[in-house]
Amino acid sequence: MMRLSSRLFLLAVVLAPSLVAAAETRHVLVIGIDGCRPDALAAADTPNLDALIQNGTYFEGTDIVSPDRKNPANTISGPGWSNLLCGVWPDKHGVLDNKFTEPKYDQFPHFFVRLKEAQPEARTVSFSDWKPIRDHITRGGDVVLDFSPAADVKGPGGYETGDAASTAACVELLGKEAPAAVVLYLGQVDENGHAHGFHPSVVQYRDAIERVDAHIGQAVGAVQRRPKNEDWLVIVCTDHGGSGTDHGNGHKNFDIRRTFMIVSGKNAKQGRSTEPTYQVDVVPTALKHLGVDPRPEWGLDGKAVGLKE
Ligand SMILES: [Zn+2]
Questions:
Q1: In whole angstroms, what is the distance from residue 27 CA to residue 266 CA?
Q2: What is the pLDDT of residues 65-115, one digit of tens each?
Q3: Neighbouring residues of 8: CB distance < 8 A, sequence distance ≥ 6
Q4: From CA 65, how far away is CA 75, in angstroms rounded?
Q5: CA torsion sign, 146 to 31 to 115 to 69?
Q6: Ligand 1 centroid vs 77 CA: distance in angstroms?
Q7: Which residues pair with 261 in a beta bridge?
Q8: How far apart are the CA of 237 and the centre of ligand 1, in A?
């Protein structure tokens, strides 16, 4: 008897850790690259983004303009990141430019707020170096950090420094905890587009994409070092492309309005897709992975894409 019970005890000790490990948790890392043209992404050397694409779905031609809705907004970052992070079009979130004059974020908030309505215990964290993300768009985040350049710093350099700082803070946090939702915004690609040109042939623009790719490698590396019972979905998106050194008023210019989306991870389908996708699809995709059914009263405009379940 003694021998049997001590064997059972030993068995329990051996099994217990694996039983604990079997309880899987779900997490989302949304990586936003400001102003990244998909053709320039294809021309740049981006091993880390390529690896995410290999392990997920690459959506070609994600549109920043709704095909069937009034679009009162300019094709710039304020409306773009509101589409991407709130999951509704500008006629709902009310952000028409970068002035944030009359945002309706109380009614149509950042997806952190929706996640917490469904899962109040969910931790949400945002890192960015474009100040309006912190000041206006990101609501309800437990940790919202801004690394934007000081007002007197001109040119892309401040955003290159900011991207490195945002990424380092993200990596540090992921070394300690696993929030349900993390947003990492990187600004230098857009700044280099404004300074040198948004085009695959512009070396400074491609170089910025390659530096951002290295940062993405660091963030994804931190995710990969997390315990194996955590199922992370990585979504990569951008707010607009560009033409010449600008991207305003680009509703009819596909170099500006055509973007891309990567949905990557164990729960992502694999391959390239020409399925019509829109910026407002990011939030439903993130929420679905996290096990949240959007409520009708939230009025989300998109659909979940690229997921197995
Ligand atoms: Zn810009």
A1: 11
A2: 998 888 889 999 999 999 999 999 999 999 999 999 999 999 999 999 999
A3: none
A4: 8
A5: positive
A6: 6
A7: 59, 237
A8: 15
